[in-house]
Specification:
It is a single chain. By secondary structure, this protein is α/β, with parallel strands linked by helices. Helix content is 34%, strand content 18%. The protein has a twelve-stranded mixed β-sheet. Strand 3, helix 4 and strand 4 form a beta-alpha-beta unit. Bound molecules: S-adenosylmethionine (SAM) and iron/sulfur cluster (SF4). S-adenosylmethionine binds next to strand 3, strand 5 and helix 12.
Length: 346
């Protein structure tokens, strides 16, 4: 079998899973480390992965490029906090070559905003046009309680820098119940986003990884938030879909695009177009299932051999499950999946 022939045959052939869903979106967690310790995401004394287990930036580039050759159009870098990974701009600039060639439509990232003030301009220069920045509250004390190590002014500066650099910003807020939650601030966050010209997406807490608190105490169903908002605002459904779990409305009074990510109250798996690569090179075909393919072993064995990487992607995607089965309830003593969001990437 001629290796060169097989490489050219697979090049461009889309990755399609057993349920006919084309995989066009890759999320990459570039590090499991973070400068915050958000209460819903991590325990305060998190143990992080040994550096040797984490993919090098070159290995990430090789794997991401293999996905792009097979039809991935959108890549989101996440973590942990992607902007605390040393040399992150080398990776962003390197992946930017696929934007320049037109092979990749969008390169974006999800960040807590803490380092955004110094990275916004270089990100724009590398071809990034949109970023998601997490912001759960506008109250400085509450922000410090929710993120434990984060400080609000630094993040607000980061958000302003992103806007000034020309990046379109989407704010992500996890909807949190309880005394330290943000149920009473949803409207203030909407007004802030509308005033600054940003989009806003509300996220339901997901049962990922052991944390120090009871997730049931944090869980605020977005169906309830949406019903409350509908009493005060005109919410017009938008047809816009991303293949992910978000559903969008326009809040007419504010001119705001508002998203709801509701993995627990809404099933979105039928249109899933994405897979997730962890910082250690495990490919998770579903955020809510444990099955994974070890692409670190593959890339360390085959280097940049395109045919071998292709075969590994085919084998992994053939195992993509139909959907997840998240549930948060008191009798479920353990999280639905044991790994943290910071490992798989949000
Ligand atoms: N550190 C970056 C940040 O906070 O934006 C990127 C990684 S973080 C894991 C990505 C997103 O996941 C954030 O918006 C965060 O609020 C959200 N997140 C973390 N843990 C979550 C959980 N258990 N349920 C729902 N969302 C979660
Ligand atoms: Fe860090 Fe983001 Fe997790 Fe918060 S949500 S601890 S900022 S990775």
């Amino acid at each position: 079998m001629p290796a060169a022939g097989s490489t050219s045959r697979v090049e461009g052939r889309p990755l399609v899973d057993p349920f006919g869903r084309a995989i066009t979106y890759l999320r990459v967690s570039v590090t499991d480390r973070c400068d915050f310790r958000c209460v819903y995401c991590m325990a305060e004394d998190m143990t992080f992965l040994p550096k040797a287990e984490v993919l090098s930036l070159e290995e990430i580039d090789r794997l991401a490029s293999a996905f792009i050759r097979r039809g991935t159009r959108k890549i989101r870098l996440t973590g942990g906090e992607p902007l605390v990974r040393r040399g992150i701009m080398d990776l962003v600039s390197s992946l930017g070559r696929h934007l320049a060639s037109g092979a990749l439509e969008e390169l974006t990232l999800t960040s807590n905003g803490s380092q955004m003030a110094r990275f916004a301009e270089p990100l724009f220069a590398a071809g990034v046009r949109r970023v998601n920045i997490s912001l759960d509250t506008l109250d400085a004390d509450r922000f410090a309680r929710i993120t434990r190590w984060g400080r609000l002014p630094q993040v607000l500066d980061g958000i302003a820098a992103a806007k000034a650099a020309g990046l379109k910003v989407k704010l992500n807020a996890v909807a949190l119940a309880g005394p330290d939650g943000n149920a009473d601030e949803i409207e203030a966050l909407m007004e802030f986003a509308a005033r600054e010209g940003h989009d806003l997406t509300l996220i339901e807490t997901m049962p990922l990884g052991e944390i120090d608190q009871d997730r049931m105490d944090q869980y605020l169903p977005l169906s309830r938030v949406r019903a409350d908002l509908a009493r005060r605002f005109t919410l017009t459904d938008l047809p816009h879909r991303t293949g992910g779990p978000a559903r969008y409305v326009r809040v007419e009074e504010l001119g705001l695009q508002l998203g709801f990510i509701t993995p627990l109250t809404h099933n979105f798996c039928e249109s899933c177009n994405r897979v997730r690569l962890t910082a250690t090179g495990q490919l998770f075909m579903c955020l809510g299932q444990d099955d994974q393919a070890d692409l670190k072993a593959v890339v360390r064995r085959v280097g940049s051999d395109a045919a071998a990487l292709d075969a590994a992607l085919d084998a992994a995607i053939a195992r993509k499950p139909k959907g997840h089965d998240f549930v948060i309830e008191r009798r479920a003593a353990r999280p639905a999946v044991a790994r943290h969001m910071s490992l798989t990437g949000g």
